[in-house]
Design a protein that fits this description.
The complex is a heterodimer of chains A (379) and B (585). By secondary structure, chain A is of the alpha/beta class. Chain B has 3 domains: 2-226, Glutamine Phosphoribosylpyrophosphate, subunit 1, domain 1 (4-Layer Sandwich); 230-415, Rossmann fold, CATH 3.40.50.10490; 424-572, 3-Layer(aba) Sandwich (Rossmann fold). Classes of the chains: A alpha/beta (379), B alpha/beta (585). Chain A binds chain B through residues 2, 35, 38-40, 43-44, 46-48, 50-51, 57-58, 220, 235-236, 238, 253-254, 256, 271-272, 274, 288-289, 291, 305-306, 308, 341, and chain B through 224-226, 229, 231-233, 239, 242-243, 246, 249, 252-254, 256-257, 412, 415-416, 418-419, 422-423, 425-426, 542.
Chain lengths: 379, 585
């Protein structure tokens, strides 16, 4: 991927930007970002943070040695102050940070309830004190899970900085040993927390982000276009005659849409996207520099950067059963996920629940279902 | 304090010169400090005088070697007038002789010093009138700022050198480039050719060449101070390489639509095209020649600005396109004037809104790449290439030498260009490893054919500029007419080979090179097994139509130059002896 997960755009803004906003709106303005893969995309977007009302410093983690190592790297910049840790790729809102800051006893963890606790660290509590922490438990021990969002007093950093890091080590792994001796309290928040682990989560996170957009037209809307509800059109974008767009929809800069394209809520479209005539798009997250051929139908799907399709791409949404991470999910109404730079021929049908990897080539007239690894060729 | 603002501004201007630094502050008389060396070395030595007004300078030596004595500001014999200057005073020897005969003592070898003594000579209590009188004696070019002890203002004037005034609240700033005042204000007034001005904390008066007052509203600037800061990147050059997807996106924004609508170039009768530029822009112009000839079938010539301006006119009147990133390059400005004198219709391709060249030509295309601080041009080059494609498409569509389908196809591919470039950036770590084969070389050849011949010239220039390795770009077909004699196991070759009609020939040339034991680094379309088989290492780029291949290839070449220079420990953003926009001839 040429985007780290934290830079995946929801509502045309990277996930990480929502986190920075949530922090800044609670007065947390000194932010240290530990960056690694394609760090340039993060640094170019946030720069020194001034644009977001923050002051951002960067620490580079060259090897994927885990979150505990990342925290140890940031240690020298902490300046003796208490600190909050947040994963850069989890959607949160300002309420959650407000709830975390309200408990002032210094050592706290934000927890959430989950239907699927085996994916997370499960927390055992007595009152509001944490007595146990089990990472990805194999049997059901509870549904209270760790969100990975902590408030630490400064002294805690020593525990991380004194480690030697040979292989990947997470914050939770390190804490779970020490937790019985620590007085760590839980914070239950009504704020938003979504770690969007599965592709089908993304369209909903995207829809949520689009909930409060307002109308804004910078580009050119030709006569004969119908815009309903809040629709955003970026500079240099042309919406050609006969398009019918029902918000919330946000369209980036330099796109060429139509003529006669229908876009239904809640959809976001990145920069430099071209959607050819007579296509129908609903409830989708379409990233940048995508080309969608004429007469296509795409519903409840995520289309990665640089995907190009010829005429007649069909990705309908429906209920389906999907296998992922050795688990089976019964999903109500989902489309597909198409990885970046995949090239798709004409008259291709991609079944609901399919995950197509990055850089695949799908030839004309094929029907695709199940999962495709990166760089597959489908004939 | 004035001194802090000055030093901050000078740091932002370091890309225009950095062999010596100096400031003069009005603080109970005039205090001056100057020395030879880079800003970072001198800054801690500069006393923090209390004072609300001052002038400062970073120098790129033209007349007189870099030394403490030759650093600006200069003061007159009485120590009451201080002055800084960009440009060249052509008749300084003659003036110096006269002034010395009158008893003035010179302390430097520079041409600038005559200005301060001329001011002393004419001084009558009115600094502005004195500066104008002094300048009436000189031949040459200048942007000059001077202040007199006890005055509450700075006087400035310009001729053929850029000068802007930053309009603040309760303060005003003068600078040779907008970047110096970013962060203090977002409103500037551009001083134009032949004008002078009086600038104080609470007012600006501008005068034309005749001395009458000029009324001019400030122009808002959209660049932000973050654009001119490294923001976590190790070097400006690396940041600017990574900014290219966004820069190309911005460069295309709106212009894809507009260019066909004739907003940039109206429907005109063109029978031939001439592209004129210097340095890196010249390489963009050479790519432009292939593009325009291919798409618009117009005879196109390319000339260096410094040659064009002294060449005889041939009676032909080609559509003349001038490429200059800064819009201030002295040779290109002179070429623009010469082209108009010859009666040619002119188009400028520049990155700086409001720059001098935009007023010297009939039409302007702005590349919108944002400020570029690294001396080695990166994003401003690739956006110039985008301008060449748009120009070729427009001329082709106008002359109906390409059909609608092809225009649409190429527009679509251009729109996807940010994505292709991002695909190249994904390979940065592979490139970092591969360049190991180039680091210890003394000479390197860069080979290409057709439209990628100029691409390789640019690649070689990048390497020369920042790694100090001798690199030569060569048209692969010319190899047998000379350079083949220079190849051996210690001379690596970087070769570009894409899927165009010269591919077979290029593969042949690479085999010839490999047969002389030269290590070959191939750059081609990803998955090209044939190329991989005959080269020692290969870097793949995303497949694009061959005519557009210079863009992704250039990004590979930039990263090659960057990583070689980094491994050699070179000063990447400030290569020795080079400055960014050269406003001297």
């Amino acid at each position: 991927m040429s985007r780290p997960k934290s830079m995946i755009p929801v509502g045309n803004r990277p996930i990480l930007e929502y986190i920075v906003e949530a922090l800044v709106s609670n007065g947390v303005k000194d932010i240290i970002m530990v960056v690694g893969y394609r760090k340039d995309t993060i640094m170019l977007h946030f720069q020194d943070g001034k644009r977001f009302g923050a002051s951002i410093e960067y620490v580079v983690q060259d090897k994927p040695l885990g979150t505990a190592h990342a925290l140890a790297l940031a240690g020298p910049l902490l300046d003796g102050k208490p600190f909050i840790t947040v994963a850069g790729d989890n959607m949160i809102d300002s309420r959650l940070i407000a709830d975390l800051l309200e408990k002032r006893n210094g050592l706290t963890m934000v927890v959430a309830e989950s239907d699927n606790p085996s994916k997370y660290g499960v927390v055992e509590i007595e009152g509001d004190r944490i007595v146990g922490l089990v990472e990805k438990p194999e049997c059901m021990i509870g549904n209270i899970i760790n969100t990975g969002i902590y408030h630490f007093p400064y002294q805690m950093i020593e525990m991380f900085m004194s480690q030697t890091f040979g292989k990947e080590l997470g914050i939770t792994q390190l804490l779970s040993k020490a937790i019985p001796e620590m007085d760590m309290r839980v914070v239950k928040s009504k704020g938003q927390w979504n770690d969007a682990v599965y592709p089908w989560d993304l369209v909903n996170v995207n829809a949520q982000a689009l909930d409060d957009i307002s109308q804004g037209i910078m580009g050119t809307v030709e006569p004969g276009v119908t815009l309903k509800g809040p629709v955003n059109v970026g500079a240099g974008t042309r919406i050609r005659s006969g398009c019918y767009i029902e918000g919330p929809v946000t369209i980036g800069e330099g796109c060429d849409i139509g003529p006669n394209v229908v876009i239904h809520p809640s959809t976001s479209i990145g920069n430099g996207v071209q959607i050819e005539p007579f296509s129908y798009i609903a409830h989708c997250l379409i990233m940048s520099n995508v080309i969608i051929g004429s007469h296509s139908h795409i519903s409840r799907s995520v289309i990665g950067d640089g995907v190009r399709s010829k005429a007649g791409l069909f990705i309908p949404s429906d209920s389906c059963i999907v296998r992922a991470d050795r688990e089976v999910f019964q999903l109500f109404d989902v489309g597909a996920h198409v990885g970046q730079d995949t090239v798709i021929g004409s008259r291709v049908v991609i079944s609901p629940g399919t995950v197509v990897g990055a850089g695949c080539r799908i030839n004309d007239g094929v029907r695709v279902s199940g999962n495709l690894e990166n760089k597959c060729v489908v004939v | 304090m004035a001194v802090d603002i000055l030093l901050d501004g000078l740091k932002r201007l370091e890309y225009r010169g950095y062999d010596s630094v100096g400031v003069a502050i009005a603080s109970e008389g005039l205090k001056v400090f100057k020395d030879k060396g880079e800003m970072s070395k001198i800054e801690p030595l500069i006393p923090r005088w209390n004072g609300q007004m001052g002038i400062g300078h970073t120098r790129w030596a033209t007349c007189g070697r870099p030394s403490k004595e030759n650093a600006h500001p200069f003061v007159d014999c009485t120590g009451r007038i201080a002055l800084v200057h960009n440009g060249i005073i052509e008749n300084h020897l003659e003036l110096r002789k006269q002034l010395e005969e009158e008893g003035h003592t010179f302390t430097s070898e520079t041409d600038t010093e005559v200005l301060v003594h001329l001011m002393e000579h004419y001084y009558d209590g009115d600094a502005h009138a004195t500066l104008r009188a002094a300048l009436s004696r000189v031949k040459g070019s200048y942007a000059v700022a001077a202040m007199v002890e006890g005055d509450g203002h700075i006087v400035v004037a310009r001729k053929e050198n850029p000068l802007v005034i930053g309009v603040g609240v309760g303060e005003n700033m003068v600078a040779s480039d907008v970047t110096a005042v970013l962060g203090l204000t977002n409103k500037v007034v551009y001083i134009q050719e032949g004008e002078s001005a009086i600038v104080s904390a609470d007012g600006i008066s501008i005068f034309d060449a005749q001395g009458s007052t000029v009324d001019r509203q400030p122009t808002p600037i959209t660049w932000t101070v973050e654009d001119a800061e490294k923001g976590g990147f190790e070097h400006f050059m690396l940041k600017e390489i990574y900014e290219q997807p966004a820069a190309i996106h911005n460069s295309l924004l709106g212009s894809l639509d507009e260019i066909y609508a004739g907003a940039v170039i109206p429907d005109i009768d063109v029978s031939s095209v001439k592209l004129v530029a210097c340095g890196t822009s010249y390489h963009a112009a050479m790519v432009g020649k292939y593009v325009i000839e291919d798409l618009a079938r117009l005879p196109t010539t390319v000339e260096l600005a410094s040659e064009y301006r002294y060449s005889p006119g041939t009676g032909e009147c080609p559509f003349t396109v001038l490429l200059t990133q800064s819009g201030e390059t002295a040779d290109t400005l002179a070429a623009a004037r010469e082209a108009r004198r010859r009666g040619c219709r002119t188009l400028a391709v520049t990155n700086v809104v409001g720059s001098t060249i935009s007023r010297e030509v009939d039409h302007v295309f702005y590349t919108n790449a944002g400020p570029e601080i690294g001396v080695a041009a990166t994003k401003t080059f690739t956006t110039q290439l985008i301008a060449m494609y748009l120009l070729g498409l427009r001329l082709g569509a106008m002359r109906q030498t390409i059909d609608r389908t092809k225009v649409r196809h190429l527009s679509t591919e251009l729109r996807s260009m940010p994505r292709y470039v991002s695909g190249v950036l994904d390979r940065a770590s592979q490139i970092e490893e591969v360049v190991e084969m180039l680091v210890d070389a003394r000479d390197i050849f860069y080979l290409g054919r057709n439209i990628n011949y100029p691409t390789m010239l640019e690649g070689a220039l990048k390497l020369k500029e920042i790694s100090y390795i001798h690199a030569e770009g060569y048209a692969a077909g010319e190899l047998k007419h000379g350079p083949l004699a220079l190849l051996d196991a210690s001379t690596p070759v970087v070769a570009a080979c894409v899927n165009d009609h010269t591919r077979e020939k290029m593969l042949g040339n690479i085999s010839e090179v490999a047969a002389r034991d030269s290590p070959v680094l191939g750059i081609g379309v990803e998955g090209d097994r044939e190329l991989a088989a005959i080269t020692d290492a290969m870097i793949g780029v995303p497949r694009v139509p061959p005519i557009l291949s210079p863009v992704p290839l250039t990004v590979v070449l930039q990263l090659i130059a960057y990583y070689v220079a980094k491994k050699k420990g070179c000063s990447i953003d400030k290569p020795r002896n080079l400055a960014k926009s050269v406003t001297v001839e």
